Amino acid sequence: MPEERKLVSILFADVTGSTALGDTLDPEDVRALMGRYYEHARHIIPRHGGILEKFIGDAVMAIFGLPSAHGDDPERALAAALALREAVANDDILGPSFLLRIGINMGEVMATIDTSNNQFLATGDAVNVAARLEQNANPGEILAGERVYAAANHAFLFEEARLVEVKGKSKPLQVYPLQGQRAAQSRASAISGAQTRLDATSPLTGSCPRRGTPTTCLHHRSCWNREDTPTGGIPGTP
Questions:
Q1: Which of 164, 187, 210 is a domain's end point?
Q2: What is the CATH number of the domain that holds 137?
Q3: What residue stretches are annotated with the Guanylate cyclase domain (predicted)?
Q4: Do 45 and 33 form a contact (C-beta atoms < 8 A)?
Q5: Is 84 in contact with 102 (CB distance < 8 Å)?
Q6: Residue-wise pLDDT tens digits, 50-67
Q7: Are residue 137 and residue 234 in the same domain, yes or no?
């Protein structure tokens, strides 16, 4: 199977206190509970455009952006995390016993894709960081990495960022606890505010083919005025 480099969003979710459940319940009862949890994941992840990469004990790993990107994969991963947490909390059997902790990270992975049998395998630092975010989440909490926050904060509300120490990283990572989805009006305001900040700070000028008027634009390379960039790079860079 060929390998491809892909930009994806990775979701890890696990059940807090699952070891204690094993101490107090019969193994068959634990298996039945985990089966209900997995069934929620099997329905929710694909519904949001993700794929279930694997189940690991009491953990679920899902990827958004394979086999092809949607353009809003970080948002899809966040929405899936909220839906999974809600489904488990509202489950009459799981609710009292299960509290999920979820980590979502965005980054490049090496992906092995076999569409003939719908099998996918993703490896890379982005996957490891997603697992570390999940491990650092509090019970019931969803933690997003910086790139997920940057890509989706126009559509979702987050609590104040905090730093977490992650094994294998020389510096702490900044993480963002997820609150929920923005209302439609708030989303529009956030997008407008982000574009205003771009227009106010961008040194890139030219004529935008989408708007047909001179404007400041970071999104389209054809908008860039390259007269000041003899190397063909972004203005202001060596």
A1: 187
A2: 3.30.70.1230
A3: 9-134
A4: no
A5: yes
A6: 999 888 878 899 999 988
A7: no
